[in-house]
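step=encode ok
step=design start
structure_in=
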């Protein structure tokens, strides 16, 4: 019985996130930034993100609010990102981000990168 209310609250958050994601339909366009070479990413490993979007995207607003994350309005945001290590290919958007939260769930302060393939 003690786990009932926290579990119910967590389910409500995931349902709300799914609803916002559906309403966003892919999200807002990210800021128009000139891609930098991957070698100039000095904030950590280059990330490959499933979604690269605007800080005003509804899902970004929801996640950043829930997690207490500050988002730079002039840079992009990466969602569902993984580190690119050892020259791995990225079929989505490769980015260089200032801050990575929740193991790549939301990455903020992102700039697209060219992988030099």
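sequence_out=
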């Amino acid at each position: 019985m003690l786990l009932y209310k926290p579990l119910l609250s967590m389910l409500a958050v995931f349902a709300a996130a799914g609803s916002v994601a559906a309403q966003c339909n892919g999200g807002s366009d990210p800021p128009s930034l000139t891609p930098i070479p991957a070698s100039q990413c000095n904030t950590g490993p280059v990330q490959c993100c499933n979604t690269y979007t605007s800080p005003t995207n509804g899902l970004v607003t929801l996640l950043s609010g829930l997690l207490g994350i500050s988002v730079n309005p002039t840079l992009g945001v990466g969602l569902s990102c993984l580190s690119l290590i050892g020259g791995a290919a990225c079929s989505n958007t490769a980015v260089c981000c200032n801050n990575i939260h929740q193991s790549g769930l939301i990455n903020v302060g992102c700039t697209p990168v060219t992988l030099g393939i």
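step=design ok
step=annotate ok -> The beta strands are 36-37, 47-53, 76-83, 93-101, 106-114.
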